[in-house]
Amino acid sequence: MIPATDFETVVALAQAGSAATRRAVILVLVLIVFVLVSGIGLMMLRRLLKPEDEKPGDGMMLDDLRRLRDEGKLSSDEFQRAVESIAGRVSGPETRPDTKNTGL
After folding, report:
1. Which residues are CB-contacts of 37 (< 8 A; sequence separation ≥ 6)?
2. 99 touches 77 (CB < 8 A)
3. In the chain, what is the straight-line distance between the N-terminal and C-terminal CA atoms, in Å?
4. pLDDT tens per residue, range 13-68
5. Most C-beta atoms within 10 A of its C-beta, which of 30, 43, 80, 91?
6. How far apart are CA 11 and CA 14, in angstroms?
7. Residue 64 sits in which domain range?
8. Separation CA 99–CA 12 (nearest Å)
9. Structural domain contains residue 41
């Protein structure tokens, strides 16, 4: 049988361990909440500070080319070549009639 003093020591250690465990769990939860709130705050701040010109897109769009042409930054020939280039990318690669499909 365990002497009374040893049993009291074991109980005291168990209670101290559970209190320390609770404190550690609470600290970890507070840190997780802090990281999540900080991340969300940084994302919102980044959106506020991001200029309108840097919005994601698929390169030059037809409206952008028209605006550049109207502002005089593109000549009519440059505008036409850019439009043809965009049309070529949209329609896919051209197939030549003399090219044979070997089935490889």
Report:
1. none
2. no
3. 83
4. 667 777 778 888 899 999 999 999 999 999 999 988 887 665 555 566 888 888 98
5. 80
6. 5
7. 57-91
8. 86
9. yes
